[in-house]
Amino acid sequence: MTRWLLHWAIATIALMALPYLFDGITINEPMTALMAALVLGLINTFIRPIVSLLTLPLQILSLGLVTLLINAALLFLVSSLVKGFHIDTFGTAFWAAIVYGLINWAASSILSNDKK
After folding, report:
1. Using an 8 Å Cβ cutoff, are 104 and 14 in contact?
2. Residue 40 phi/psi, 5° resolution?
3. DSSP string, 70-96
4. Based on the structure, what is the number of domains in the chain?
5. Which domain range does residue 103 map to?
6. pLDDT value at position 32?
7. Taking Cα atoms as reference points, which of 97, 94, 8, 88 lies closest to residue 45?
């Protein structure tokens, strides 16, 4: 449970950094970032594997580049589901998904290395 809460906190912080890095992203308040991180986590847990399986031939042909589009689409979907979290264009969502993933990866790897 503690590990899950830690990952949720990392995801929230990563989401809160995005409006500072991209002009087309707005988050009204920190509670909105918490909700968006929760919804994104749930979508990544339940919907992303299905979408990845359905697009597997395209992912193989593109050497995994379709995964970037899936991540952007899911982030864009979250922005339409969570009030107070808005992404202007799919292009912004594309680059934001890359940065969001990098922040999550870096923070998670730093914290997991500290526990060893």
Report:
1. yes
2. -65, -40
3. HHHHHHHHHHHHSTTEEE--HHHHHHH
4. 1
5. 2-115
6. 96
7. 8
